[in-house]
Amino acid sequence: MTHELLTIGRISVDIYPNDIGVGLEDVTSFGKYLGGSPSNVAVAAARHGRRTGVITRTGDDAFGKYLHRELEKFGVDDSFVSPVPGLQTPATFCAIRPPHDFPLYFYGRFPTAPDLQIKAGELDLDAIRDAGIFWSTVTGLCQEPSREAHIKAHQARPRTGLKPGQYTVLDLDYRPMFWASEEEAREQVAKILPHVTVAIGNDTECAVAVGEGTPDEQADRLLAAGVEIAVVKLGPEGVMAKTRTQRVVSAPVPVETVNGLGAGDSFGGAFCHGLLAGWPLAQVLDFANAAGALVASRLSCADAMPTPEEVTGLLAERGRLVPGTYATEGAAL
Length: 333
Prior knowledge:
The chain has 333 residues and is of the alpha/beta class. It is 33% helix and 20% strand.
């Protein structure tokens, strides 16, 4: 199997409250879902018909079995998902206080977590090299042996070795609780950027990667580092994508926010789908923006990932340009 999208990194069980607008101390019931950003991105792209897989680790426990079952349910290849003896599958709790307050509480990730125990020698470098898109995150660089595994994976697919239609994406998902300092994170990001063709982050994450500045300045620094597409999320102003010849901004797609936590992962999976389809950058950005908005209007993350029809329906409803095709037609692989 050649993956159109192969991700590496975090997986967990998301424990989300059924009670909206209150703190965890007042929640009376919860639901459990597959979670972890790279895993959610794989699910999101699978919803758009892409062949996806994830490289990660779980505990050897009931929650690990649950995550395998969920990946299978969503059509994500779990061949590279295995248990780590002695460690528990992490759980992530959040409170849901829309429209902007969604605090996260990580359990089972300190001092380490199974997905931070991915070892370089365990990687299928051929699968990584052949994937249409390889997606990793900054969080995967926060600790050994995961750091070495990520570096080796990226070294296996240098920019100069990529075929037309192949991309290497770095999600600049800086989470301060996993790092000693921003400087440490910036040092590790600098080791990966030479292999990356697409970088995605908000202004804070871009600042950690390449320093403070305006969105355009940050995008220009990412491009100067060799990235081909720099995507900077602008919060309430939408999202910008910049190449050496193009600057595109997608305005926000207003929705009533229920849970904003999965929006970025939905954006990522839809963005990969658009890249693989060969759409113009403006259409890729609008499609991904609408996909993110749909998940923000729903409770969960993985289970809430939209279908192509739902995304194009929202675009049409809001008077936005709908891509000419939205299935797997035009894929590079």
